[in-house]
Amino acid sequence: MLALSACESADEPVGIEHPGAADADTDTRSDSKLTLLISLSDDVVSRAPVDSLYDAGTGYENYIELGTAAGAKPDMWIALFDDNDNFLTVISSDNYTLVPLESYNSSKHYLLEFSLPERLATQLDEQPFRMLMMANCGGRYPTLTDSDGPQSGIPLSNINSWWGESNYVNYTPRNVDGPEDKIPMFGVCRFSGVKLVPDNTVELTETLHLLRALAKIDVYDSENTTAPLTNVELVNYSDVSIPYPNGITHQADYVKGSYALDYVATNKMNYSGRVKAGSLPFAKVQADGHDNAYRIYCPVYRNVDAQGHPVTTYERTCMRLTFADGYSKLIEFRDYSKLESDPTAYFNLNRNYWYKFEVTNRKISVDVLPYGIVDLEPSFGINR
Hints:
The chain is mainly β and 384 residues long. The protein has 2 domains: 2-212, no CATH class; 214-252 and 271-383, Immunoglobulin-like, CATH 2.60.40. The protein is built from 1 helix and 24 strands. The strands form 4 sheets. Strands 1, 2, 3, 4, 5, 6, 7, 8, 10, 11 and 12 form an 11-stranded mixed beta sheet that branches. Strand 17 and strand 18 form a beta hairpin. The longest helix has 7 residues, at 118-124. It is elongated. The protein starts with a strand and ends with a strand.
């Protein structure tokens, strides 16, 4: 999860005067600037919703393409909406800067500064508005312009409809090893009472959280296993990501101040419906101190339809685990403890979830963050 500091604050904004700013009595209005502190973290690793106790993210999980490399372009999209969720404007790359405050590749904190033209600053001065930010979508962003303003009736809650088949963000499941594997993200927040002062920078002091559009799955041997893993594969998968979920219009839709509910929007997920048959290998990595570990990041996947019924066996995603003795087994994402009482107890792969499977002699425990530990019996069934 990534977080931008600034969200619906009634506090008096902090004005930072730029050198050479005009005297207020003689000023002709010019651009106003706003700054946001971005704080990246990942899946919950604590039972308390305290930012410092969330996982900081590893490797390139925090990476945002800033366009600093030769030939690269910034891969971000920032748009503003009025308080009725109607589109106002896109903040062009000429009018913002995003600076990592730590080592770029894995920085947890960025500083965003963007400018508002006089027309928009006048309209939004002390008026509520919403900001949507997306990143790492390979340049695939809604094609909205200022001519698509409030009169167009384009609601924030429906902006995900832009991602039809031709606009999907292609993302084949894999490990995240470098900039080419950057993870799509989104975040939205409402601001109010912001006093915009010409030739001054207003510091917004709350936090805007950006959620990753992928699920993360780790499978690893425990220290006590005598039947080590030799391979893990994902069977059936989606190769496209839809960065923006259905029906999200406010950060409160996914930030609850609760360990069990923070940073997910399970009732507002959307799935591409594009299913690829076959299998993809997990990458062998070191995970949480485990040398024999396997990892993959994948787009959200629907095992259960909108009516709560499982999709067909051939459509569901699962994992194939192979052991040193040649034994292999398919593991489905379902609650096997309810195998007889509830044959429909499958679950979906959701964005910003981290599924951690520990294997001990073919017995598995899984931690589905931000939820608690659950055990898998030798039959590989999930007990919740």
